[in-house]
Amino acid sequence: MLRTRVTRAVYDEDRHLWQLSTDTEQTVTARFLILATGCMSTPQAPRIPGAGSFAGAIHHTARWPREEVSFTGKRIAVIGTGCSGVQAIPVIAQEATALTVFQRTPAYVLPAHNRPLHSAELSEFKVTYPEFRQAQRRSRGGTVFEPPTRPALEADEAERTAAYEAAWNEGFLNGILRTYTDILTDEKANETAAEFIRSKIRSIVADPATAELLCPRYPFATKRPCLGTDYYATYNLPHVSLVDLRTTPVERITPRGIRTSDGEHELDMIVLATGFDALTGSQLAIDIVGKGGATLQKRWADGPRNYLGLVSAGFPNLFTVLGPLSPSVLTNIAVALEQQIDWITDCIAHLRRNGLTEIDATAQAEAHWVASTAELADHTLYPSVDSWYTGANVPGKPRAFLAYTGGLDRYRKECDAAARDGYPGFTLSAAH
Questions:
Q1: ∠ at Cα 139 (309, 117), nearest 5°?
Q2: Structure confidence at residue 158 (pLDDT)
Q3: Is 128 exposed, middle or buried (0-12, 13-18, 19+ CB in 10 A)?
Q4: In this structure, are residues 339 and 137 in contact, taking their beta carbons and an 8 Å threshold?
Q5: Residue 140's closest CA among 408, 423, 428, 412?
Q6: What is the pLDDT of residues 191-244, one digit of tens each?
Q7: Pair 393, 316: CB distance under 8 Å
Q8: How far apart are CA 190 and CA 141, in angstroms?
Q9: Which of 72, 92, 145, 417 would suit a FRET pair with 181, their CA atoms being 20 to 30 Å apart?
Q10: Among 106, 71, 58, 60, which residue's Cα sits nearest to residue 235?
Q11: Where are the beta strands (DSSP E) in 245-356?
């Protein structure tokens, strides 16, 4: 049903069915419910006093108007320098009379190097495409590359710099992570990559003070890195300025613009590039009620809980795609999505072949998965930093690392083993 939002889903224990309600007062009954609601689909808007008083337009990058938005001749503010901000800022700067970027935390931005593909390249790739797709499915991150074999600190500085330079020029999001084995597990190794990127920022941004504000001071890739085009060079334009919200925080939005502790910035438009309530937000936006009247909101009050990133105990026949505690955002999402959908469809087919009507995760399997996923994350630098990976960008959201860090290849084996061995960790039953 298009232009309809599911607001509530209640499990009928007697009939083993889910009953869904929508914002258009429609109801749907289904045996199985698959939440393909998106891992990054619930926008996170900042709670800034006075937002309703602004005389100009306010747009969120995730809720962009269908009609064309003109920046020509206008004074624009962009709040946020995550991926959507990094993509929007250079484009807006081409038209705006003045662009002010409000930054809380700088991102590591690698060059995208986007370009048209030549016909010869496409033809060559298509010859081996089936083999490439198989290699994707077997890989750790859903991408095909030669894995590193050495720690960064075993290489000398010249060798590391050459490796990082080659990765910088590739245009891949995780290119630098692929250079050495310990970038995400050893803080000193990570610092060699982080400082390389900071040196690039300093070489591109002409004003030293602005360059330093744009230099991240947390381990590389522990917040989502970004790919950008001319992002850092944009700050060399005379009509582009950067406001550091850590030293001059926003106090309120006024009818004329944004007031920080340092004064008022007069504006014609505000663009919010403030990200998402990632991985759990789209699911918890629905009032989901499982067995015994338990709600997913309450069950996840201290962080998400499920088994294999697929099923939460007490919410039978409810599957999650690209949700929390699965590889999702740490992989090629298309490949991760295929793996989960294949597993879910095979599971439903198994239930139907055997006259079964319900599958539910056991509390023990769920607890083990939650603990083992957290333990895997703790072997990395990821949990050391506040990010949307940990839910820290949403006020009041419980702190937990939200993704599975063991790799798509290992995750696939865990899921395949569960199906092959008769679904241990799940309770399967038939209607009486």
A1: 115
A2: 97
A3: exposed
A4: yes
A5: 408
A6: 999 999 999 999 999 999 999 999 999 999 999 999 999 999 999 999 999 999
A7: no
A8: 19
A9: 417
A10: 106
A11: 250-253, 257-260, 263-266, 269-272, 287-289, 318-320
Query: How far apart, in whole angstroms, are the C-alpha atoms of residue 269 and residue 78?
Result: 9
Between strands 57-60 and 75-79, the pairing is unpaired
Burial class (CB in 10 A: 0-12, 13-18, 19+), 140: middle
- Total residues found in the chain within this entry: 432
Q: Mean pLDDT over residues 311-322, rounded?
A: 98
Whether residue 108 contacts residue 198, with contact meaning beta carbons closer than 8 Å, is answered with no
pLDDT value at residue 425: 98
For residues 45 and 63, is the Cβ–Cβ distance under 8 A? no
Record the tokens describing residue 193, joined without a space: 């990559």
Q: Nearest 5°: phi and psi at 50?
A: 85, 5
Whole-angstrom distance, CA of residue 271 vs CA of residue 89: 10
**Rounded Cα distance, 45 and 204, in Å:** 31
Q: Are strands 98-103 and 257-260 parallel, antiparallel or unpaired?
A: unpaired
- Cβ–Cβ < 8 Å for 80, 250: no
d(CA 42, CA 394): 11
Tokens at 421, concatenated: 């061995």
Mean pLDDT of the 52-59 span: 97
Q: Directed axis angle between helix 129-138 and helix 119-127, to 10°?
A: 70
Place of tokens 């090629």: 332
Q: Which amino acid is at 422?
A: G
Q: Which ranges in 81-185 belong to alpha helices (H)?
A: 83-95, 119-127, 129-138, 157-168
The pTM of the whole model exceeds 0.85: yes
Sequence-distant (≥ 6) Cβ neighbours of residue 378 within 8 angstroms:
none
Average pLDDT over residues 266-285: 97
73 conformational bin, left if phi > 0, alpha if psi -120 to 50, beta if neither: left
For residue 257, is it left (φ>0), alpha (ψ between -120 and 50) or beta? left
- Crossing angle of helices 129-138/333-353, nearest 10°? 80
Buried b / exposed e along 252-291 (16+ C-beta atoms within 10 A): ebbeebbbbeeeebebbbbbbbbbbbbbbbbbbbbebbbe
Whether 252 shows a pLDDT value over 80: the answer reads yes
Q: Which strand (E) or helix (H) includes residue 419? A: helix 408-420
Q: Say if strands 226-228 and 109-111 run parallel, antiparallel, or are unpaired.
A: parallel
